[in-house]
Amino acid sequence: MAAIVRYRTGIDRQTGKVLVGFDHVRQSLGVIWTTKVNRRLMLLDFGSSLRRFLAEDITPSLVMEIYDELVTSAHKWEPEYRISDLQLVHLKRTGGLGLAHGGTYYPEGRFGNYAIAENANTIYPLADRERLSRAVA
Fold first, then answer.
1. Which of 60-69, 84-93, 122-131 shows the highest mean pLDDT?
2. DSSP labels for 29-77?
3. Contact at 8 Å (CB) between 95 and 129?
4. Do the beta carbons of residue 98 and residue 66 sit within 8 Å?
């Protein structure tokens, strides 16, 4: 008898549409990486400290610190995804900076079940012209 996979569902913050599976994880990672630590009531250690790297000159050691913060916060707060590949990339379409990452998606990781695994990868825009213009306005 085949087991039924319990995919996590949620609502897309931009469109209001239903998110299922890795799409929900993708949004969750964005929330984790853009939420400053000590900003959520009752969950003060949620988020990441990526903002401390703003306005710094990018050096190899700084990139390693950024990677460490990204992976540590994702692994701490997202039980359904384990990052194995991480790369800063130039987003040609928007002219911004993005984060290409890949890893293993565990649909039932939130239940402690790591027997079901799928490969997953995506690109998360860190900064692009459109997002920057909305932030300034």
1. 60-69
2. HHHHHHSBTT-STT-TT-SB-GGGGTTPPP-HHHHHHHHHHHHHHHHHH
3. yes
4. no
What pLDDT score was predicted for residue 136?
39
AA letter at 18? V
Nearest Cα to 78, choosing from 10, 26, 134, 14?
A: 26
Among residues 64, 33, 63, 61, which one has the least CA distance to residue 49? 33
Buried b vs exposed e over 57-84: b needs ≥16 C-beta within 10 Å? eeeeeeeebbbebbbebbeebbbbbbbe
Mean confidence (pLDDT) of the chain: 87
Domains of the chain: 9-136 (3.10.450.40)
